Amino acid sequence: MALKLADYKTTVHNDWCPGCGDFGIVNALQMALAEMGKERDKTVIFSGIGCSGKTSHFINTYGIHTLHGRVLTFAQGGKLANPELTVVAVGGDGDGLGIGAGHFVAAGRRNIDMTYIIFDNGVYGLTKGQASPTLKLGEKTKSLPFPNTNYDVNPIGLAVASGYTFVARAYSYDVRHLKDLIVQAVQHKGLSFLDVLQPCPTYNDINTRDWYAGEDLAKESLERHSRIYKLEDTHFDPLVHYSDEIEMNEKLAQALIKSLEWGNKIPIGIFYKNDLISPFTTRLTDRIPNYMENPPAKQNISKDGHPITDVSKILDSLQV
Amino acid sequence: MSSVDFSWLIGGPQGSGVESGANIFSRVCAELGYQVFGKREFYSNIKGDHSYFTVRISDQPIHSNVNGVTLMTSYDAETIFRHYGEVISGGGIIYDSDLNKVTTDSVQPLDHYFKERLQYELESKNKPFTIDGVLEIAKEKGVTLYPVSFKSILAGLAEETENPRLRGMVRMFNVIGVSLALGLIKMPPDSLLKSIDSIFSKKPQIAEINKQAANYSYNYVSSKFTDFSFTLPGTEKQPDTILVQGHQGTSIGKMVSGCRFQSYYPITPASDESVFLESNEILEIQNDRPGSTIVIQTEDEISAMGMMIGSALTGTRSSTSTSGPGFALMTESIGWAGINEVPIVLTLYQRSGPSTGLPTRHGQDDLLFAVTGSFGDFPKIVYASGDIEESFYDTGRCFNYADVYQVPVIHMMDKFLSSSVVTCKRFNPQKITINRGKLLDKVEGEYKRFAFTEDGISPRSKLGLDNGIFWNTGDERDEYGHISEDPQIRIKMMDKRMSRLDLILKQVPEDEQLVSYGIHDYTIISWGSTKGPILDALEMLKKEGIDIGFVQVKLLHPFPAEKIKSLLEKVKTIIDIEANHSGQFGKIFKQNVTREIDYFILKYTGRGMTSTEIYDTLKKIVENKANKREVLEHGS
């Protein structure tokens, strides 16, 4: 029986602020799962802490709402133990690039086949709007007593530098485009990262929906003025085509340079895609040939309450 | 036949093969039927600092080290300076005669605190500040000296084998030292050669020259010295004996118990366990295809904990292994596992804190932290093993407790256990049972992960199970696992989780909660690795007609207060023995049993307790000469 979009929604009351960019992300995620026909009980949404952390409660699949900054650790453990699961991790930019930055980098190095979506709004919303890692230096959002004293983290740049093999950016008010990117990210074999620009209508009064739409630029020009534009509408080619150091380095550098574009023009779309780096499962299967058919979650460990693991060879080697 | 009780000490710079030397010695003794208790001490250092190994052997069961050394083998000056005083009258020292004139000042790793004490001793006895000086003191005490030029051994060997390269092979000093010791005590040489083969099994050429060196040294010492009063030709071999390293109880226990996922971050003294699991990652399964343990080295302990929980949610038995500093980083996640009722096993190999403390030394400093670590009220189990053999079976129990009660289990181990090498009865995997509790294989009808039930434990689905969808959150939640701040739900959920503590005390068999080795007027109450030295000390006292009781508490949280109270009802004097400063177990005891501890025997030098010092202190207590708080100091 084919699943409909409604099947991926729970009845849990959504308490996000009216107009929050998070709605677009949860909708797009539900649409993407429906479009792919993902089995609900083979899908897990892991989430961090904050407004975005509640996402897992709104989606009618397995939902694990974890700890601040630690969402990737839980998600990777689940995926490694049961690789047949479709795993999507979500969290805010403070969660993933502040308190969880170490995990963000380490996850890239492993390249486990799953997807990580960051809800990127430049503020810590649930604690009343403090500056978060992607807020630019010198900017003063409305609840900051003084302008931000820290330089911003570049999520796309950090992801490509850390080994993520699918790196993209989306905009939460372009739900259809976001949905398409989520589908591609989930289908990618390896760790995919999606940085979703998500205006916080309550605390980020700089990067607002109107600002992304370029309302302020409109006064000076009659031309199309949205700041957001799509990489796929340009000649930008994010794919690493062949396994060659120069090709890889060029595509990586190109993604990094592109990610620095900000201000009047903000690119969204796929920045980098490399299918030539082995996913972690391949690295494991090289050592444990039947890992995929017989992963930890599928292994029999007992019969009638007794262990069936045979350690007699190890014990023989210790016997005197 | 009088019983054998012999202690051998080998020391040298870290990286010079002290450990492999001791392993060869231990293996030879074990193969000849002796019981072995070996323990390694080392600095937090890779190369150069002093490391030593004490191997005690007997034809009777032994569980600890003693203070005196019967024979010491040293190929460096530092070992002689540090340990000459431990050799007993009638014992011997095999040493490198090229070191005689080495002065205390020329041995760089001798820290000045030690050097000052040593020089004071030498000065007071009117001896020069040299190896000769300390050896004279030993000799006056009745120790026999066996000077051997290690360089001449190499030279002689090079000549005999016509292999001049061997002249410079100082890396073989450890094997030479072991062989000299074995020759002196007249252990048959076959086992020595066999042990070398097995230790260097992957490097046959190295094995060959080491065997040549061993043979040469063995023959050299046998022909030159025949006056040593201890000979150990072998004894009746106990069937089904294994020689096992500290971490192998829990690691093999994990394999047998069905742990299939272990995440960890490197830390002394816990990582050996994870490395062993990874080295043996592919598992043989009876009548089935091979299984495997996925061992993941994470970026930090927080991640190790998160990954373990993620894996446990799939129904996989999952674990991590760490020490105090790593455990500190894990505490937030333990609370998450607690509120979400996730079964996990955390093996805590304690060392000496606080902070980095004495990073390669022993301590039982983390009991209170294990019991209280992480904020908020939630149920967990803290369980302690007393020795390596126990730790194998206890690992099986810990996984069952975790599954049955759906709680995090902290399995307390320590550095004393992890760096021991002992003989014990071959582990019997069939004595381990596997009970997954209310883990579901299939779900029918509406499913609620945290459904209210009579016993407070809900049937547990796992990620990926058909129709078993659930939600987890670190927030308080309803039966489905969705966030709820409703006060009535809060009361019911807290009561549901916390009721498990009473259930555990009610259901876990009494002999798993504590072990009584007899109750007398004077009775010791203790936990963890003090068990071995206590048992040996009690044996010594018994021979003198002094009976002292001993209760080993294994379940430390929830605390079996009522059982302990009734056990100790008639006891007049309660003695708490533990390796920390504040008597942490004593505090838990007093709080729960509402009775004072009469005497504390504590040690916090970072060195494990010996049975000798416990014996001495217990005797003082019985003779009414002890202070309420006795602090042990033995060991360098």
Description of the molecule:
The complex is a heterodimer of chains A (320) and B (636). Chain A has 12 helices and 13 strands. Chain A is globular, with a radius of gyration of 21 Å. In chain A, helix 4 (93-99) packs across helix 5, helix 5 packs across helix 6 (155-162) and helix 6 (155-162) packs antiparallel against helix 10 (245-259). In chain A, 33% of the residues lie in helices and 18% in strands. Chain A has an 8-stranded mixed β-sheet with strand order 2-1-3-4-8-7-10-9, with helices on both faces. A two-stranded antiparallel ribbon of chain A has the order 5-6. Chain A has helices spanning 22-36, 55-58, 71-81, 93-99, 101-110, 155-162, 175-187, 209-213, 215-218, 245-259, 280-287, 312-318, and strands at 43-47, 62-65, 86-92, 114-120, 123-124, 130-131, 166-171, 191-197, 228-230, 266-273, 302-303, 306-307, 309-310. In chain A, helix 2 (55-58) links the parallel strand 1 (43-47) and strand 2 (62-65). With 320 residues, chain A is α/β, with parallel strands linked by helices. Chain B is α/β, with parallel strands linked by helices and 636 residues long. Chain B folds into 4 domains: 5-224, Pyruvate-ferredoxin oxidoreductase, PFOR, domain III (Pyruvate-ferredoxin Oxidoreductase, domain 3, 3-Layer(aba) Sandwich); 244-431, Thiamin diphosphate (ThDP)-binding fold, Pyr/PP domains (Rossmann fold, 3-Layer(aba) Sandwich), CATH 3.40.50; 438-508, no CATH class; 512-631, Rossmann fold. Chain B contains 21 helices and 24 strands. In chain B, the strands form 4 sheets. Chain B has an 8-stranded mixed β-sheet, with helices on both faces. In chain B, helix 21 (611-622) links the parallel strand 23 (599-602) and strand 24 (629-631). The radius of gyration of chain B is 27 Å and the shape is globular. The chains are: A alpha/beta (320), B alpha/beta (636). At the A-B interface, strand 2, helix 3, helix 5, strand 11 and strand 12 of A face helix 1, strand 7, helix 9, strand 8 and strand 9 of B. Strand 13 (309-310) of chain A pairs antiparallel with strand 9 (282-285) of chain B, so a sheet runs across the interface.
